[in-house]
């Protein structure tokens, strides 16, 4: 599979052959859904909590005698059915993370990359470096390239000036190749990969 390479200025910079085992798969929605669910569940804080009947400060004295009142038997005012009592079956602090095999996660990333290729929303650029970190200049270049919602993956490190210029642009995310993930790929309309990022991905999946 061969795709053209462009520059940030919109000029051609040759072409590149993509590995079919990474970029040429038939996308599976079930794998992508499992991976996105895993990512979102793992980053969920899980700090929600309420006070149950052992946490509220109410008397534990028996409210009235056991028999003869015609009322239900109660032994503490902290019971959930009383005003000011504890919450019954409320949320507790916990982790929402669940397991997903490493091979499934790797396969889902390959399917996400293939989905962008199939949808023709993958753009390959020669490099993402700027002489100065000016957002205005970068916005003009993105307009020429038709980028309004994109994930840009650079090499091992993001160029300082490019990262500084891109961080103020809405719906534009910039990550090093180590941070590439399925959720960020799918949440943006286009995926921009540098030549270094493609080399790193092909080396990663060998």
From TrEMBL:
Domain of life: Bacteria
InterPro entries (alphabetical): Ribosomal_uL4, Ribosomal_uL4-like, Ribosomal_uL4_dom_sf
UniProt KW keywords: Ribonucleoprotein, Ribosomal protein, RNA-binding, rRNA-binding
A Pfam cross-reference name: Ribosomal_L4
An example Gene Ontology CC term for this record: ribosome
Family: Belongs to the universal ribosomal protein uL4 family.
Assembly and binders: Part of the 50S ribosomal subunit.
HAMAP family xrefs: Ribosomal_uL4_B
Biological role stated in the UniProt entry: Forms part of the polypeptide exit tunnel.
NCBIfam families found in the cross-reference section: rplD_bact (TIGR03953)
Protein name as catalogued: Large ribosomal subunit protein uL4
Organism whose genome encodes this protein: Methylobacterium marchantiae
